[in-house]
Amino acid sequence: MEDDYYPDPDEEFEMMYADELEMMNELDNEFASSAVVKKPVPPTVRRSLNFCSSSTSEQGSKENEAGSKLTQDYFTDIPITSTAPDNSTSARKRTIDDIFGDIDDIELEEAGEVNGKPSKRSCKQLSIDPSYFLDEDFGSELVQDKELELIDRINALRKKAFLEYGQGRSAASPANLKLKESNTLTRGVPKWPFVSVTSQLGDRMYVRVRSEEYMEEEVEKVSHKGDSCGLLRGRFPSLKHEALSILEKKQQLEIEANQADIESLIPNEDGARNTQVDTDNLWVVKFKPSGYAELLSEESVNRTLLHWLKLWDKVVFNRDRKPHSKPKEEKKENRFQKKPFGQVMTDELDEHGRPQYKMVLLCGPPGLGKTTLAHMVAKLAGYNVVEVNASDDRSPEAFYTQLLAATQMKAVMGKDPRPNCLVMDEIDGAPAASIETLIKFVLGKDVGKGRGKKKGSAAGILKRPVICICNDAYVPALRSLRQHAFVLHFPPTGSERLASRLMTIAKKQHIKTDMGAMLALCEKTQNDIRSCLSLLHYFKSQSRPVRLSDVHQSNVGLKDVQKGLFSVWQEIFQIQRSKGGFTQAANDAAKTSNGENRTPDVKGGDSAIATRIQRVLRTVQSHGDYNRLVQGVFENYLNMKLRDSSLNGLVKGLDWFSTTDLLNTQIMSTQNYILMPYMAYAFPVWHILFAGLAWPKINYPNASYEASVKEGHTKQILGEMVKGMSPSVRVNCNESQLVIEILPLLLEILVPNFRPVSLQLYSSHEKRELCNLVSVMIDYNLTYVQERTPEGTYVCNLDPNIENIVYFGENKPSRQLTYGTKQLVAREIDLEKMRRFESLCISGQKNQNSDPEKDKKETGASSESEKASEKVSPTIANHLRKLKAKPVIKEMQTKDFFGRIVEIPLTPSTVKARSDAELKGDIWFHFKEGFNNAVRKTIRMSELL
Amino acid sequence: MSLWVDKYRPKSLSLLDYHKDQANQLKNLVKQGDFPHLLVYGPSGAGKKTRVTCLLKELYGSGVEKLRMESVPITTPSGKKLDIKTISSNYHIEVNPSDAGIYDRCVVMELVKNAAQTHQLDPTGQRDFKVVVLTEVDSLSVDAQHALRRTMEKYVSTCRLILISNSTSRVIPAIRSRCLGVRVAAPNQDQIISILQMACKKEGLTLPVELAKKIVEKSERNLRLAFLMCESCKVQETPLKEKQEPILPQWQVFLKDTARSIMHEQSPKQLMEVRGRLYELLSHNIPIQIIFKGLLKELVSNCDIKLKAAVVEEAAFFEHRVHQGSKGIFHLEAFVAKFMCIYKKFMEDSVIDMF
Questions:
Q1: What angle do CA B190, B195, B198 make, to 5 degrees?
Q2: Is the pTM of this model over 0.80?
Q3: How far apart (Å, rounded) are the C-alpha atoms in residues B56 and A931?
Q4: Strand, helix or coil at B1?
Q5: A167, A455, A936, B66: least CB-packed within 10 angstroms?
Q6: Could B275 and A746 be called an inter-chain contact, meaning their C-beta atoms sit closer than 8 Å?
Q7: B280: chain A residues, CB-CB within 8 Å
Q8: Residues 6+ apart with CB under 8 A from A900
Q9: How far is A220 from A237, CA to CA, in rounded Å?
Q10: What ipTM was reported for this prediction?
Q11: Which residues of A, range 612-651, sit inside 8 Å of B by Cβ?
Q12: How does pLDDT run across A570-602, given as a tens digit for each residue?
């Protein structure tokens, strides 16, 4: 069942050899036409490759000297008819079959008849006009050195064969042939069925037509009848076997010679030879899998992808009207419905006949062959691959045009126009907007536009498969894509599999190596096929056998940058158990950790320490982000097991911390990066001081970050507070003084003793206290705000919440106002602020006489605060002042041209206007102005308070 | 009505309570008409700002009390935009350049230029120069100070600078020589007590001398702190008692606890704990110098006389590094570790000596 996912063998063959088949057909046609025209060369002669030609050669060599020349001409035919390359026997066989299959019975019969004996006749003719052949038939096309050479060789071989195998046999067969010769070809009209053939010179001949059976008979006679009549020295299978064995032997010899060659070259590393070996292609390209079976990736992944692609067949190929696609598709559909494919492919095709998922997202680390797989599978499924990768323009507009071009268009110019399959490579690097575009497009969000077109009922919908490839599926930009695409995680290739493939490649490239080295190589590159190959290529260029040690020692191919922060830290804090020097290192570590003195110059372990230092240094240097590394070491080193009672190690380590900080500051402030390399040298020191054998538990360093965030928060609160402080207070305190001196004590001052009673019952002393409190809080821009706690209760907090600045950890203020009091204070603060604002307005309008009602209505507390606000008002800041329009004091007097005052008689309308102007002195509130007969009344702010 | 600190702040030179000679000198300076650049320095809470405010009032009259807060937009050469908060009247402008961090140079140049290029138009202002008050000159970067010295000379006809700092040590000599230094020393104990008592009398309270002495001691002769403590004492218990303890700022308490824990145990684990506390202090915006100072004070007061010199030396060494470097916590921790090491060795040695 499952094999149907794959192209069946015939199909595959068709695909692979399509070109060849086509060419053969073309040749046949050509041949047929030429056969009619060119009389002297009967088509049968050409077709009966070996037999007749060999017989001719026999005759030629025996009968006349010119014959050899003629046979030569004959042989030149051979390459034409057998279009398949000489060395591929199967191909040749097929060709012959094909040709035979194409020919009518008559011709075949004829061939069979002629098989035995046309040669003499033709020889005759040829001897009559040999130049004719040379000129007309192949003179122009086939006088090529190569061909001639081949011909010569074959000729020589044949002659040799002839000489070897007895005269009698060879004599008998021509006689045999001669017997029937006259029956086959006549000048006069024969009695038997015939075909007339006319040469260009006008000679007419009649060729006898015979049945197929006759031909077979004849063939039997010639080839299988026994040793006596065979032109070959044995039966075909045995001959073939022999030939194969010879070939094999030859190959063997060649290989051995090559090996010897390589071995001889090993001692003297000959660079020149390498250059001629291969410079044309990277190995990655060269050893790309050429077929589905050669893919190295996980089979299940390959299958799933192919399955998914096949699901598209209905949409894609139905339109193409490929004859076999439809029934096949239907068959498939049925089958799929029977067998649900995982959780993904259950629901089959949507109303447009497309699979449920319009995209596939292949994700996995680099170098596993994702792109190769996509290309291979798409090609297998009969698509033309259109690749869009990071090197293309991927802005949303360009992306969209590409999408359209790839999915809606189709190549018309190419040899075989195939539907496109879009492969989006390296999509994790694409801008998020482009990915959005892709998703919208795939989901057919902008279908409306496309539907309107008359071309095709659903021009707007996606009708081509889209394969997306990425390294990291969890890039934020891909989040939405992941929901709409079928995500295929690419598991790493098995080391064994990769290593064995590497071995074959190495063999092909004549690199002496062993499986162990290859496995090590795989391990080193973390099964990255690409880097394995390039490494191998590199080893090849060194032209010496690749051994395990080489792989381990070589610095190339190390993916340094890939090492994460944590692994670097781990390397700093853990003594690596290197295979060779483990015990030594361990002893050494024991010494350093047990000994009182933790200086690095411990006797005996010098070399181990040296390697450790080297290793740490290299790791750190290759990572490069010193600052973060330092931070990580700083926040973790105290968690290591330090059996150092005197704390000398700590002091030393910290000394280095502060040194690195100085260096870093210097680098940053002066942009003097020449100091950068020295940063790395602190790490070996810490390694020596703090590293242990145990696996270190490393936390990500965020304490410093948290502290800085908190600091920023504190600063923000302070800034907020300072911004609204009254300038007279602000002058006398800057921020640091606020933090250190004022705020901590201010919080203590802001909690006077209030009885929990209502405002009206406060004593005059309490009222004064409250008033004082309110004015201080206003001065320092503080107030209480109600906040809801997660538990659902309400609390009053200071705003800005300076308690956060003042109190540490779990410490809480010893004394606090009650909730009610806080609310009271907050209300009083608001009122006081309003009062101040109003008093400003009032003081701004000096011509306004004070409102007598105001004092009457105010409570005791507010009158107190009124006094306070009056005290404040002369020093009210400029920013609190409000610009006032100058009140119209006196009317503009109209003057005539000479400056004399013109008296305008008072009319009722002018009187009214004037009184209106006077009224406009104050703020007026028009409540719900409109067509309403309700009483309109002006209300002042003070009345509302 | 406001805090006592603000309430009882003298408003003119003649009302100043201490350093009266200096006040007189300043007065004469104003009278003379030729007013130099000033560098006012002295410890925190000694009354530098008060003195400067009084001086300004002496110069321009009560107009300087009409203050407004503005935020001046400043564009750095790199194109970054900053908003600097200034307090200004018609006659002067006050700014804290260290708000701008490393861009303080631009702030200084821009502001001084702006102030200096606009001449006084108000004929009632007696002076033909404006005053630029720069606070916290200690933390001004060397670059900015260099920028300042040229500006000071160039615009001398229209602008005077008053620099306020805690000490002259971090002011470059070039600036120092261009300014008239005015040292405002912290008031002595008697002065503080008399001032506090006067204030309390006005509030209708009596301040016991014992409590006043305690306040002076706790506040380290910082008058502002003394006032705040006094008021907080009043809030605690209204008739002030002799045995009352003035409240210390929370961070000081926290720092003292930290020092105690360092003395208590010397081990990597303890160091880790101390680090957490130091981070906490730093994140509360307590300046690292203050932390160093506070720690050192506590540690030195508790350790043996033989160690004191060594500890102070180490503290000085690492405090210096704090200024050179940028990550304070490294140096703080290094100091703590060093102290632990010294202290532990001393303790072990003394134990060995006993036997």
A1: 125
A2: no
A3: 60
A4: coil
A5: A455
A6: no
A7: 707, 808-809
A8: none
A9: 15
A10: 0.89
A11: 634, 638-639, 642, 645-648, 650-651
A12: 888 888 765 444 444 444 444 444 433 444 444
